[in-house]
Predict the structure.
Amino acid sequence: MPTVECDPDEARGRLEAAGVSVSPGNTDHERWRAERGDASAVAYDGKVVVQGSRPTDLLALIQPKGGRAHVYFDGASRGNPGPAAIGWAIVTSNGIVAEGSKRIGETTNNRAEYEALVEALSVAEEYGYDEVDVRGDSQLVVKQVRGEWKTNDPGLRERRVKAREHLSTFDRWSLEHVPREINDRADSLANEALDDA
């Protein structure tokens, strides 16, 4: 059960601005309650507790904008080129704030990795984070985006530019190559999307 330390009135305002219906609390200690998707939130003095099978359905709306997040990304292609999918997860001190995956048609593994990075950064932008520490298990993508390796393929070069544009919107960012086991959640999401096809 993630707990977000925040001003409950400001959190309520963010929920209502996003079209989420907010109702009065059930007890004297509850300030208000809200539900969206498979998540429910209960506000108390100085904090909001989020429950349900998918707390991420509400967490990003409740948290104050700004702050720092860890962003994990992975792309997968079976056949290289072949059927491909992406997976990503955004993690803060409250746990997984958001995650997602989807099929992206047929492409190479490297292009799928870039698509995953761009998608993950786009979501982190929407959530309003100031700082992101981005992690992926594609050494090629990490080193190309950081400018350590050349990007000769025109399709990858275009994706590299798009990734750099997204990174430039954050006050601070880092991009690191990590072993697959550290990138396990994003990897699993990408492969599940391929398996579900």
User: Anything to note?
Assistant: The domain at 68-196 is CATH 3.30.420.10 (Nucleotidyltransferase; domain 5). The first strand starts at residue 3 and ends at 5. The longest helix spans residues 109-126. Strands lie at 3-5, 22-24, 32-36, 39-44, 47-51, 68-77, 82-92, 95-107, 131-136, 172-177.
